[in-house]
Amino acid sequence: MLPINFYNIRYSILLIILLITSCDSANEPLFSCDEHINHWVETNLKTVHQLNRQQWLTIKTIGQKIATYRGFTSEQKHKFWHDKLKEVKMLDWNSEELKHIDTLINFIDEYDKIFTDNFKNKTIDEELEDTFDVFMYTWTQDAKDNLNWSDRTIFAIIGAGEKMLSKDGDIELPEKTYAIEKLSVPDEQSGDCFCNDPDDYCNFILEIVNPNTIKFDCVKNGCQVKSGCGWMFNYDCNGQCIARKN
Length: 246
Hints:
The protein is 39% helix and 10% strand. It is an alpha+beta fold. The protein is globular and about 45 Å long.
């Protein structure tokens, strides 16, 4: 989910430019490798802790959004996804689909500790981690096998915090975030990782805004590992979206 800087050139060749600057390992920032974004979150944590999802949606760039989410309390993160799923239910689903979404809402309400800081970094018991992994895998497979949901639809529900606009997986994106012709956004030129390998969502988000034959992979390339990727942002960001060469 997952910013990439690239430009269309003649003969439909796509040039990928990744401007990566490493974080200072001796003074690792908590929220972003972009010093301006990191400084804003650090100095405005009281404000960040008062934000709700609707306010989060008004943030203009993906780098700022991810860093802000990292600054949320565990209670904020739980409410963020509870509210997102309630919003998703407002689309034109049938009764079985609504029941499936309710199953997910009930799960995160019962196991709200999954939103504890660094949940996936072994700071809480492994049994809860396994419960989360098994439930989410089963939930996504049931959605595909029994409801015929696409990966794109599933991504729009549990892989993106933005508003879901249709059952096909369209989501409402910030103006500056993925505008394919305007991807020279300073906060995206950092050493932060923005996707999770092996749970790769790169193609889903990019296809939403630029359907074409170009495919992307989440590649571990030395970027700064941080939280905020994968299902409900509960996994590490450990790679960056890079176009396939073939």
